[in-house]
Input
Amino acid sequence: MFGPLVVKPGSSRKNKTGSWRTELTPKFLKKNCTGCKLCMSVCPEGCIIEGSEKNQLACDYEYCKGCGACAVVCPKGDIIMVKESKEEAK
Output
């Protein structure tokens, strides 16, 4: 019989997991964002961060898996999924 596997909370912050990403990354267009933060609430990695200006959200690509949940829930279509370039992957 196996017992439950327990991982320390917040341990993913120590391990940059963005290298596991799919071929796509979210691109925040920053044109029609209303600051509703739905993207932040659905991100399974919690890697969407607030920018320095009002309604300017961005993604921490060191943790993003490219799932696209943020783009799906954006009511303004201000987040699109784009193919990741070689330079962004580093």
